[in-house]
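quick one, 1015 residues, struct below
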Amino acid sequence: MKPFNAFLLSGNQQFNTQHSKSLRFAGYLCMLLSALIFSTKTIQAQDFYKHSKAADKWVNHTFKKMSKADRIAQLMIVRAHSNLGAEHIQAVTQLVQQYHVGGLCFFQGGPVRQALLTNYYQSIAKTPLMICIDGEWGLGMRLDSVISFPRQLLLGAISDNAPLMYTVGKAIGEQCKRMGIQVNYAPVVDINNNPQNPVINDRSFGEDKYKVALYGTAIMQGMQSENIMACAKHFPGHGDVAVDSHKDLPVINKSMAQLDSLELYPFKALIKAGVGSVMMGHLFVPAIDTTEHLATSISKNAVTGLLKNELGFKGITFTDALEMQGIAKFFPAGQAALQSLIAGNDMLCLPGDVPGSIQLILQAIKDKKLSWDDINARVKKVLLVKYNMGLAKFTPIDTTNLVNDLNSKTAQLNETLAQQAITAVSFNNHSLLPVNATKKIAYVSIGANGIPFIAQQLQNSYNTHIYSFANKAKMGNEVMDNLNSREPFTQSDSATANRLLQTITANQYDLVLVGLHNYSRRPANNFGIDAPSVYLLQQLQQLPNAIIITFGNPYAISNVCSATNLVSANEDTHDTQMAVYKWLTDSLTAKGTLPVSVCTNLPYGTGLQYNSWFPKTNPELAGMNATTLLQIDSIAQEGVDKGAYPGCEVLAARNGKIVYHKAFGYLNPDEQIPVTLQTVYDLASVTKISATTVAIMKLVDEGKIDIQKTLGDYLPQAKGTNKAGLVLKDILLHQAGLVPFISFYKETIDSITGKPLPQYFATQKDAQHQIRVAENIYLRNDWDDTIMQRIMKSKLLPHGHYVYSDNDFILLAKVVEAVTGKPLNEYVSEQFYEPLKMISTTFSPRKKIPLDQIAPTEIETHFRNQQMWGDVHDEGAAMLGGVAGHAGLFSNAYDLAQLYQMLLNKGTMNGKRYLSEKVVNEFTAYNSNISRRGLGFDKPEKNNANSKDPYPCKSASPLTFGHTGFTGTCVWVDPQYNLVYIFLSNHVDPTRNNNLLFNLHIRPNIQEVLYKAIQ
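---
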């Protein structure tokens, strides 16, 4: 076999030529991402382990050529670098050529050098090598010239956007594929609930198990869509430790019940979603195994008993690096490898002494501690994965344009991520923003390496005065497994801090911006922030005209818990500084939330998400009495206390500003998860006006729909039926004669047991069953057509009578889809929700939003036989895939209010026109002589002033429009008083038979308080 330098000079000379070319491009601006495409194809774990005749033939043929020592070595992954020179290359070459190891894990180096080495090592390997990398934030974590994606804690600050996480995972997968890598040891799904965690910390999505599970699943699916095996780590959960397992063995003293409810939750979610592999962490968890000094990574109880048997994981288990002191301290290299296999692991990462380990394992087999049957099965599993990853026919990596290819999606994606993660933690002085040329501004930079980009931008644009304190050298990449990194030295003192404070005070600035920069990712020594810097921060935070901005790990906010104006950028990069600059200049709204609790007064989820064009204000400034509004508190809380609903959210806006916005109670009657202002609710029939009606209005505006025309004019399925002649206006008014409701689900369940019939449903999603109805219930794909047939064949009631019908809006949604060529959810999102920044408003919220931000509904016993949580409550909407014209939309109160403020503004919001004033006036007015209805919208009873049962409340003017929802929701807009009122609850939890919401008159009583508060 040729040595590496001879390999370069022979038939692979083109790689050497491109090596120098690519190096010249290193550091250049990366190509912009032209589009973010959410791929519909996701590689499941079973795809990596799929058997076929060709696969089995290759596996058996390759296996038969292996010696016994080869088989053991096939289960080993050894360390490789592309920055360590000839001696290291020779050592790796020996392990590949002489011992036939199963794979390599690349660490630091350069992309072209690594590509060339990969080509070389694959060319000399007897069996194709599985190439792995630990690239949690992309290949930039390990390779120079490659731009990193953000760390996971920044991603955890992004609200309600699992599809964006999928895009990140897909981009990382594309990088790996381009580099000939098959396995990426990511994502980290440890729940970081210990602020002092020295090894996980900002590598985690945060402390919320639901967000960790959702975002981890999305990253995993994105990578696996590119046929890159993801690896959930570090099982059974490394988040609640204060010891670095690179240095010692951390201990987790929790019961199995505690582990099961928290640490194991994300792993179970990813296993169910099809993650290809799991990495075992070096942890001592007595609840799992009491054997002294025995890490979970080499514990049979943990690997075989818990992960494989109890959780049912069938994929590859990797150990964490066996060279780490958490295990090496108690088990020398060969012993660690042996114990790993005895425990049930499939692949051993960085076993150290490869020949010594092989000999110990061979001896253990002789001693009956291991069996060849077990070893052979694991080897064949690994070989099967290699075949399905395309390694049976390895194609050398082409280094042409390699660096640019690897960076092709980093620029735009990083910009998007930075902007969506910006978090307004607290903000009491709204007069400070936006910055403008009339304000005298100071920027105090603490800890930066030179003048930060944001300070320079502010100086250039607004003549900002820049002050620097405690400048220090750049912190660097700070990869967690680099144990030799040192914090840069800072020169600062309290006397200098006091002089700076005096200067700031003397200059009488209108705005003082304080940027905390360039601090450590790690919590040790207070993130490297020295005492004089903390003193300066704490003095500056007391200024009413100061905004504190932390550019880095949000845990460092613990130094400024009392700041009244506080922003977290989560990292210190050009993109995050530019995002904060845009926020300061009012060209960006902060929509992030804290991914972890940082102070007792700043828990997980804290974040002010009000848009500048729809802000919160003092009620008096909007002409309302704040004391009167406090009566809402007691009414809403009474509903919780008396069991009308587990929790609720109430919002009121007047004159274009939020005057009241509060949350009460819990998601469930068990009172485990409190309702927050970010909680999203199943809107039920409020969907009719928040999606279908506004879509029809838009299409009427554009001349694409005429409501005087018939259903048959727009909907092909209606032609030839008795529904063809129904006029759209009559359908909007619920007076077209459609029956009110069809129980579509009843013909799909067993009439005796009430359970879904197997001829219609599957317990797992597959090619024939793509329609999710509930957890573990997937409907046959053809049932959408069946539902339409049932409606088309249903009888018609006499024309000219008002009969409230869900079928009206199921059909109207189909009209929207027929006219636009898009699903209803996509159309309304593009036209309204996205431009209005309604980030939580969505159909099928499980795809986007963590479960603990979604209010559950009924514990349903007649069809789906489970609690509805993140799946639409309405049975018909569920059978339509969760997207229907009558139900299926979810939202929090603030995002929903933006849509209705736009309608109150006669179709405009923040300078953009969404609908014409004419169409808004037409649809929201009374339109029927036989009912109170507007077009789509509900309205007050026409005799409201004299009615004993006024609707929606006595004081609502005739101009009022809105709707109520079966789950316990309502929205009402009163143009006469410039008022928007939203009430969201889940009163159907646990049962729809709870009438207390109505009996206590909670919704109308709150609405009456709003009118009383108007001054």
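Residues 162-178 form the longest helix (17 residues).
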